[in-house]
Amino acid sequence: MAESKNSSTIANDAAQIDPVAVMRIKNLQLRAKTVVEGFFNGLHRSPLHGSSVEFSEYRPYTIGDDLRGLDWKRYARSDRYYIKKFEDETSRNGYLVVDQSRSMGYGTLGYTKIEYARTLAATFAYFLTLQRDCVGLMTFDEAIGDYLPARRRVGHLRQLLVALSRPVAGTGTDINVPLKQIANLIHRRGLVLLISDFLSPIDALRTNLAYLRSRGHEVALLRTLDPSEIDFRIDSPSMVRDLETGQEFFLDPESARNEYRERFNEHQTQLRGVCDSIGVDFYQISTDEPLQDSLFHLIESKQRQSSGASRSGMLSRASAMLANASPGGSP
């Protein structure tokens, strides 16, 4: 029997965008628009897309609902009662927390982890804006960099992309600082996406992530790594430099490879364990992977947050908005 594929697999097979090609685009908003359009092109080619979906702005009428919310035009078309959901029911707040420490400046593919992470964040911001969701941003290294509250007003996306484009200035990484700060700043439940290489101690991470979860937020960690960090692609003895401390030392790959992989896997296991124990989504993303794959992670996280909204409906709504968006401009 042939193995069945879900809609995300079909979409990915249909339209993969080479991240190298995306990174050649200088304008960050145009990068994000390219990734989102590629994502929807994949869905349009999928046989599972567009088959009798309901938009997430509506829900079936139930006894006790306020009759003033009935959509009579929809009733005339379908002979069924639907309640039109108000804006505060359909919109969600999304917060992008992006690591801009010096270690994120590493890369072996012609671009760095921070360039890939910025493009990821810009893609999420563009996608959420298309859905009329509010988007906020916090950047950090060893301290908080920029903070933009979640908004949906004209020009907000452009401000967010400007903040993302600022050059890396910090040295070390303290993931716990932005987690504490974002938990204190945001009061309405939302989706928090933390994008980092997580190359730092994770001792206090469980406590701070658990605090966010206790306040009702959906949280997802996107660990962004260069392929050489995953596979240890150093073949000859050489001098290497720690990007965050500036310390240089001699490295013999033959003697260091096994120890590196052992420590890397142990750190990865601890990180996953922390996330699993408190219900936080964890995804590892290599910078040579297509960026639109991450949108499926975002949709899965948002779907768990949105009670009663169908995944297909959410995609259809954003797809329609994308079709009406002006080329190269703010949605």
Automatic annotation (TrEMBL):
SUPFAM superfamilies in alphabetical order: vWA-like
Transmembrane segments: none
Domain DUF58: 57-269
Recorded superkingdom: Bacteria
Region feature Disordered, mapped onto this chain: 305-331
Protein name listed in UniProt: Protein containing DUF58
Organism: Rhodopirellula sallentina SM41
